[in-house]
């Protein structure tokens, strides 16, 4: 049997799960999870089969390239004259890396949700939406046509909308869902225009063909300049991956149930933008100035979000800003040309951030749906498994060796430095310190010290059921080991071996040659520096928010925190108020935009329609006026005839005389 | 399938008329089933036409031509190409759906209502099939009469104002069109010295493509046709009859209005205005593109702040129909294809949205968005269906709305990228107004207004689902397989493009465009000054006798 034909099955399984659950799920009550979970389990097994074959190189070579993979052409979607869109799929090493993250975390989140959502009346609806999301996300990474990627792009947006607004009775959830969709539409607008530009330039929407045409050096002039095309595509990436200034939707998206935050808004969907830019890598590499834009937006988002994460008190919002910040790292990596490092961080981040979100869900569950960390504290004793796994996740994201985050983050920083982007490295270095700080602030406030909530709740806190803790443990394993598995040996890692064919063309375009890795030289020094800054961040967090680890007992110092925030009032308030971006958007789009819309409506009623009515009224009143002429008296008519004659004769004489 | 000499087009056109006669003579308790029966019969015959139509044969099929007014060469001539077939099937489908949807809401004068509805269907089908300009004009005007009655008798509180406005506005345009039709016939007769074929579309089209009409005549006639069609589409700034007509019409009337009647104008552009006056069409294309862009963006902006469900959907129609005129007048293959797809899709989706608003109105007797809230808890199935069509209307890929919008934008992009960028800005605005409406109606806590209704707020009934299911199914099918439609009318698209690209723009265009814009500016400025200087007045209304505007 040829494995290509498995690819559509990957999509049909979750689609089937969605349709069946949507149709009959209500009647299945608490058994509604079986079909969706089993569908995703099957997807995981099949995906792993494909992934292993692709990554080990047993898969055949793709037509016209030196990349191993599977391709499958399904059907013609739009046959519009010379514009034809085919639905087809490709599993190459890049897709394979994404498939690992999407299917594994997808499966674990499905299992976790059995426990987390068990008390919800709309249990079935949740699983139906989750399967719809899995379908869309898989379509996104598998599709080999720009327009089909766009379809998936919008469909993940739809699933995200449905899941953020899952608890639709809450006004805030409904509004957050709407905001997410509309902000994403801004990015999508750029993406769709980019797709049109690609078609106008190349006459095809096949991803590999079009990139091949766009980057072949023989063709110089395109109707649409290449840099515009690249930046339009990047706009799409900015929306989905929540990069500044389109980052505002992601923190609000935390209104959704926590498994959704873990799956969609941390581990998979928000990576779509990174995937897109990585997929289009030669396009960006062909115009190096666009890459500087990517790097700048990425690293700016990284430090902006990290600065906000430092003062947030909602546990999920801290993690959301952390996600923004880490996505910023990935874009910075793409922008400096450290393609492999970006995908590496995408993978490790997917696992440890998924772990942290699911862990936070377990925390929230245990303290009766409380998300404010000021009402937590000392939970380590009560929920030890959650605590231990989240500690692993925090160490991983902080970049402590040998956990996963260390390898991927260090590769980004090291490459930025070595490729000459010192400013990216410097900002990234600061962000690494901030990351370690806010994560251990979160740990300190949540797990260490004394419980600050009501006593009644404290007594009832208990560890989550196994369906929730087992996924945590399973996610902790890659959070520890994935970096070592993929990132070693330094300089010629396993992952770079897999992805080398994908990024070869970009490296050639930029004239990059692989530099040897110098452990006892610049690379080693950079590693020591970044580990040191992470350690410093942790140390500061310990001092301010306390710790209770391995016999180390430090009490938090809330009064020092207050004093410090009082000393830098502007920075503190800026961080607390998220740099006022939400307020700015409110002013621009709700207040000013609303005024414009009302003005347009006024214009429509009074001027456009008013003119119509005025003509109508004018006709009626002129009719009334003219009625008076029709007096019925012969003298009046005779007078009129006489005047008319005189006027006509007079004008004839005047005109004829000339 | 070969139908031999069976007069299928005449059968489709006049089956509803037979139905109207039958409803009129039979007792009124039979009105509903008989009307539905005839509408379904017309639908079945139209499906027969669809399957037996040969999309690869260019030109018109199943043509019938009978002499009518021989002196002037006026014929009873019907014929169908792919565009006609698609629109006829859309008409017959939406007609039986609308009749079924009227069963419960319409309780007074049911017989008259059903007769009006069936005559409306005759007129609509006739417009899409007529190949004689005089016959076309007759059908075009026939449509007005039943719609006038449907809004005026079974409409809402302000129905008289709305229906008079609708009829007078449309008449202004169509009478000018009649003048233009006569003018072209006289011009044809003056050149060829025969009346034979003076009203025949195919003859006139060939005559026009050989440069038969003078520039002055082309410009005058095109502008007259343009006005008639632009009012019907409706294009900015001729759109203000639409929100009033929609708001006051009964649900099924709104459905017919949105799904079919707005297509008459777009059909007119593609079928008559462009092929008959290609040079003038090219001349005025830039101005029409600008008006389309305004309609797209402005319609969406105004929709954002509508307090009434129907008004919001009406303004969204203005915005969506802007895509149709935009796509036609960029004269690129994808543009015209997208425009035609958009016509069909808008018919399906907006028709469904009006049905869905009707479902809520039926239960609450209110359409104020601010009074709604939390329906997802009370009417989950309804909200699921509503959400489906909301996203279809918002152009979610995978559903049919996307393909038409995308092809139109792509065609526009090929014409001019900046124009496409401006037009595609609407995707953000449409998400804004649609999700605002959906969120307000479906999400949040159940509003006090709805709570007070208690058990009246039952979920959507099987009959209501039956009216929506065919539309939903088609939205999915055409979303995944738009080729089914595209194959149908590639001949029409090719004809339009050949006609449009063969000619060269007439070079007096700038003067006319500048003059028109200048006149418009003067008008707008005068109006704004008048409004700003006038004391506050009650909402603009035609002075109608006090008693006729009273509630039922």
> What is the mean pLDDT of chain B?
87
Task: Using a beta-carbon cutoff below 8 angstroms, give the protein chain pair with the largest interface and the number of residues from each chain.
Answer: A-B, 58 and 68 residues
The count of DSSP E runs of length 2 or more, i.e. the number of strands of chain A, is 4
Spatial order of the strands in the main sheet of chain B? 1-2
Uncertain segments of chain B of ≥5 residues (pLDDT<50)? 538-552
- SSE pattern of chain A: HHEEHHHHHHHHHHHHHHHHHHHHEEHHHH
End-to-end distance of chain A: 98 Å
Radius of gyration of chain B: 23 Å
**Strand composition percent of chain B:** under 5%
Summarize the main sheet of chain A.
Answer: 2 strands, antiparallel
State Rg of chain A. Answer: 31 Å
Order of helices and strands of chain B: HHEEHHHHHHHHHHHHHHHHHHHHH
Total helical segments of chain B: 23
Largest sheet of chain B: 2 strands, antiparallel
Number of distinct beta strands of chain B: 2
The rough form of chain B would be described as globular
Percent of residues of chain A in helical segments? over 70%
Strand order of the largest sheet of chain A: 1-2
Q: Would you tell me the structural class of the helices and strands of chain A?
A: mainly alpha
Taken as a percent bin, the fraction of beta residues of chain A is: under 5%
Q: Would you kindly provide a written description of the structure presented here, covering whatever features stand out?
A:
The complex is a heterodimer of chains A (658) and B (552). Chain A is mainly alpha-helical and 658 residues long. Helix content of chain A is 73%, strand content 4%. Chain A has 26 helices and 4 strands. A two-stranded antiparallel sheet of chain A has the order 1-2. Chain A has a two-stranded antiparallel sheet with strand order 3-4. Chain A starts with 5 loop residues before the first helix and ends with a helix. Chain B is mainly α and 552 residues long. Chain B contains 23 helices and 2 strands. Chain B has a two-stranded antiparallel ribbon. Classes of the chains: A mainly alpha (658), B mainly alpha (552). Chains A and B meet through strand 1, helix 5, helix 6 and helix 25 of A and helix 6, helix 11, helix 13, helix 16 and helix 17 of B.
